Amino acid sequence: MPSLDSRTALIVVDVQNDFAHPEGSLFVVGAEQVVAHANEAIEEAASAGGLIVYTQDWHPEHTPHFERDGGLWPVHCVGGSWGARFHDGLQTDAGPVVQKGVDGNDGYSGFSTRDPQSGERQATELESILRDASVEHCIVIGLATDYCVKETAVDARRLGFTVSVRADAIAAVNLNPGDGQNALAELAELGVLIT
Ligand code: VGL
Ligand code: ZN
What percent of the chain has pLDDT over 90? Predict the structure, then answer.
C-alpha cells in the first residue's frame, strides 16, 4: 500500500448531518463509526503532511435529484440547512471544502457535476486542488459507499490517481441489499485498494 505522505490526499466525502446524524433525512446506518474513523484518518493524514479535502452535497430546495421533483431521494443537504452542515463530531478545519450539486446539478462524484437536462458534465475545483498540491494518491472515505464515495473513487482512478478506500470509514445506503459490497467489488476491479 502506498505510504501516506505529502502526495496523498484524503478526500472526506459528505459527512453531513442528513447522512451522518440519526435525525438526518437520509441517515446511513453505520455512519457513527464513520465520523470516528474519519477523524482518525484526518489526524493521520495531517501528521503525514497530506492534503485533506472535504466534499459537501449541496442542493437547492428543488432539484430533479429529489423524489418530489421526479428523482430518487428524499430532500437532503439543502444548501445552508442543518442537514447540509458537517456532523458536529467531525474535525472540519483540516482543509478546503468542495461543494457539489450547487445550482441543481446532479451527479455523485466530488470531481464533477452533471446538468440534469443536458447531461453535460462540469468539473468541480477538486481536481485542480489536488494537482496544485502535486497529489498522486487519493484515499477516499465518508458517505455513502454506494454513491458519492464510489463515484468519487471512480473519477479519481479515471483521472490517473492511485486510489484507496478505507473500509472502516465508509457506510452504504444499501437501497438494494448488497449495494455497498457491489460498489467495493466494482472499485476493486478498477484497481482501487480497499484497506
Ligand atoms: C449521496 C445520495 C444522494 C451521497 C448524495 O453523498 O452518497 N447519496 N445524494
Ligand atoms: Zn444528494
Answer: 89
Residues within 6 Å of ligand 1 by CB: 14, 19, 57, 73, 108, 143-144, 147-148
Domain 8-194 has what CATH class?
Answer: alpha beta
Q: How confident is the model at residue 112 (pLDDT cuts 50, 70, 90)?
A: very high
Q: Active-site residue among 18, 77, 100, 155?
A: 100
Task: Give yes or no for a cis peptide into 144 (omega within 30° of 0).
Answer: yes
The arithmetic mean of pLDDT across residues 32-59, rounded, is: 97
pTM over 0.70: yes
In angstroms, the CA 189 to CA 195 distance is 14
14 classed as catalytic: yes
Which atom of ligand 1 lies at the shortest distance from residue 144's CA?
7
